[in-house]
Amino acid sequence: MSLVRLSLFRTSAGVDSLLPLRWISRWLKPPARARLWRFLALFVARRHGMRRSRSRASGSAPSGGCFDLLLVSDALFPERGGGTRSLMQVARRLVAAGRKVAGVCQGPERRRFTVGGIEIHWIPDGAELAGFMRATPARRMVVQQAWAPVAAEAARAAGLPYWYFARSTEEFIEESGDAFDEVQLATAIRAATDARALATSAVVAGAERVVANSRFMARLMRGAFGREADVLYPEVDEPMPWEKRRDPIARGILAVATTNKKGVGIMFELAKAFPREQFLLCGFKPLTRYRNMLLDERTVRNIVPLGRLPTPATYALAKLVLVPSQWPEPFGRVNAEALLRGIPVLASRVGGIPEIVTDESLLIADFKNPEAWAERLRDLRRPSVLRAVRPAVVESAATYSRLLGENEALIGHLVR
Questions:
Q1: What would the pLDDT profile of 91-110 be if each residue is shown by its tens digit?
Q2: Given phi > 0 = left and psi -120 to 50 = alpha, else beta, which region is 117?
Q3: pTM of the full structure
């Protein structure tokens, strides 16, 4: 790794020494290539002082008494996906305000521990929720994602009020086809008769309050279920000062996209179209076997899957972030995380994304067409054009910050 460290030192001094590393990495086997770029991302983040994650488990004694809020989701810790992160962010806010918060989720064993002051319980199956709730009194529940139907049923049986956090269109309908706007989706959901749609209808009908993660999702709740929904925009961690300055080594094009719905296919097409650019993929889910086979072809050796990284390391090498969503993305935390760091975003014009990425020059309307992405990327990858869109990035970040200000009242109502 001595060559890597020398290149990093020279690059930080303003000399583009990543060229030899990029050339070398393309001749490495995919696993070695991924290890190299993961090392680069983590090295840069740690060099600047990447703070330790607050999401660490520790043993806990029984707290006793009644909890102000009980969170129920199939995943809470380890955090998995944007919905989990968003709910845990709200929970941390409430704990900081002196509230007692517990959570229950699926785990490999029965275990109780604390994460950031939140008492987390692992149970192996959602069928045990009713018994768990009898042993863990709470004033109110929040239910979301895959465990929402069974949790809502248990809450109704116990006479416990619950709020339903609607995170994704996939909770309402198994297959939406080519429906992307809220009118088309609402029509498809109303016509659905599968078990998922019927279970979600019961959750929505029995909820004390429905909370959506964007105005797009709130409109969908109204159209599909006739239910008004409050909007609670997901909060992301504030970047550290060095992340806003951007390191000179940040010359890659990043996407948190390893699945078809997140746009991994678009990323592979762009990697072929721009062989001189370095494309980086992050995400919770691994690439399919087919995609991994493509990584060994010369035409896409400039694309590297990095897996899951801490947030500062995820963006450490990015000059541009792509969000090529191929589904009705309800919000997209990646947009907010990148914009707050001053990184330009090029995103699909779909779902709730335009509520955060507010400038049309940073949105792709024909988002299913790789050529539409390539046409815009030809300009946007140039340093002068990236500088020119900076006011649009700043304005989008400011819009997101204003939207977060609307969260305060609703969070306060959650524990009244």
A1: 999 999 899 999 999 999 99
A2: left
A3: 0.90
